[in-house]
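User: Please run a holo structure prediction.
Assistant: Happy to. Please share the sequence and the ligand.
User: Here you go; the ligand is heme C.
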Amino acid sequence: MRRRSPPSETVRLAALILALWPSLAAADFFTLKGHGGPVTGIAVAPDERIATASFDTSVGLWTGDDPRWFDGHEAAVTDVVFAGGTLVSASDDFTLRLWPEGTVLGRHGGKVAALAAIPGLVASASWDGTVGLWPLDGRAPKRLHGHEDGVNTVAFSPDGRRLWSGGKDGTLREWDVATGAQRRVILRHGFGINRIVPARDGRWLAYGAVDGVTRVIDPETGALLHDFTLDRRPILAMALAPDGRRLAVGDGQGYIMVLDTETWRIVRDFRATLKGPVWALAYSRDGRNLHAGGLDSAMYSWPVDELAEAPKMVTPARASATADNGERIFVGRCSICHTLTPDSGRRAGPTLHGLFGRRAGTVADYRYSVAVARSGIVWTEESVSALFDEGPDSYIPGTKMPTQRITNPADRADLIAYLRRATAPTEDR
Ligand code: HEC
């Protein structure tokens, strides 16, 4: 079920739009809804279509607010890019895929954390410690070795001849794209480098790090040009407007800072989420709108420079004030991946609707691992309790459900009592 903005949201937006009317048209401020988990990456195509990467393991490709869904990754999708007109995604499942076909463009030995692209060539940063260069014309790929730990980010120089990478080893490195050779270590920051964004003319390089550092350096010498480090960490997202005049920075505490790259002043700085980090940022082609993703399953887009009031992303489900311990555990530990409605809602796991008495691996709209599909388990109070007493990885070896245990028997009993009530098919309630 794909939904447009639900009524409450629409009412809030309408109120805001009316307050700003006639300076803003309704289309300036929009949300893209339909993912079943946090939005972790955003890319804008030359023709303005928007691609979204999600924790729910799918890629969305949006024409207006009408999505096409690309399923094929076996774990969270971490990033998306357009290489010319070709859409490429990266995932925790170690692969890069081409869409709409879903064919594997490349495979790493660890999570693929980020992508960069120029027409005909995609670069990947992987936690296997290498950078991948993957030509789209069938030429042989290259793997670049040099980082001493996982690589978090990659960026091409504007002429496409050089590639910059940053990683958990705290270094920022420069590579020769044609040969794949490392040219030099530009900087040793000490803390992990999460994001790199070069100027449109290549004259500066901005980077964001785990310790909250946001700096602009000279790529030739590594010399510090500007420092925008605030007391917020880690830096998780950065985006440059197409005209190069605005640089947006998102962090783990949910703030977005927008910099003017001519005067090097902060033009906006606001808390964009009620809870959780800003994971993804991208500018629209005309540079007016900033698209943002975080813990909420929607992508938000705002004409940030023009807004009188700082916009906010909505927080996902919160337990109601009257929630008991079981509901709190479900909301806090399960709801990010599981719905309780008949439809699985594109979350990372299957709906738990009608769970008790059901055979494992049988929700029709969900693709299970072989381990769960063949487990022969029937979900009862005992088997659900055992699943979290032992942990999914030991109760069903090979499952996709991440390692997690609920060791306190009273907590397991409360969770099961809540699930009994909340998963019962409607006619039984
Ligand atoms: C990070 C995502 C994630 C979280 C958090 C999570 N699950 Fe899961 N869960 C999954 C995935 C993915 C599967 C499917 C596993 C497979 O196919 O191997 C699954 C499967 C299940 C199943 C089997 C369903 C079936 O149809 O056979 C149950 C039961 C379950 N989860 C309960 C829970 C409960 C209860 C919690 C909270 C305590 C929870 N899960 C938290 C991802 C998650």
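Helices lie at 7-20, 325-333, 370-373, 381-390, 392-395, 409-423.
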